[in-house]
Amino acid sequence: MINGLDFKNKRFLILSREMHLPVDKKETLDQLLKQNQTLYKASLLKEQLLDIMDETNVETVMNRLTKWKQNVEESTLKEYDSLVKTLEHYLHGVHNYFKHHITNSGSEGLFWP
């Protein structure tokens, strides 16, 4: 317990998208984030990335992803490093998804053992 706030059983709340939370849950989340700077940074980065994924313009997405990667580096949160590395590795595919809004998930499903 930190300053009267119990982090136990708050995982769903922390992982939920803030815009989908009811007001009382947003207040609880805000209180939790105020108590933990690392959690606050991680939550901001999560919300930024989810907002980027809602974009429809490919140039906007790519520009915002570049800025997001800079934000991750500045945050010094090592937990996001593997995600950034994966995004960089598949950046061409990410670009194509936002350009054409087509994935290969159907074919992946056909050949999965």
Class of secondary structure makeup: mainly alpha
Per DSSP, what share of the residues sits in E-state strands of 2 or more residues? under 5%
Question: Are there runs of 5+ residues with pLDDT below 50, and where?
Answer: none
The ordered string of helix (H) and strand (E) elements is HHHHHHH
How many whole angstroms does the radius of gyration measure? Answer: 17 Å
Sum up the overall morphology in one term: globular
Summarize the entry for a quick read.
It contains seven helices and no strands.
Features:
mainly alpha, 69% helix, 113 residues
Give a verbal description of the structure.
This protein has helices spanning 11-15, 23-35, 37-53, 58-75, 81-89, 91-100, 105-110. It has 113 residues and is an all-alpha fold. The protein has a domain at 57-110. It is globular, with a radius of gyration of 17 Å. The model has no long low-confidence stretch (mean pLDDT 89).
Topology:
Blueprint: H1 11-15, H2 23-35, H3 37-53, H4 58-75, H5 81-89, H6 91-100, H7 105-110
Helix pairs in contact: 2-3, 3-4
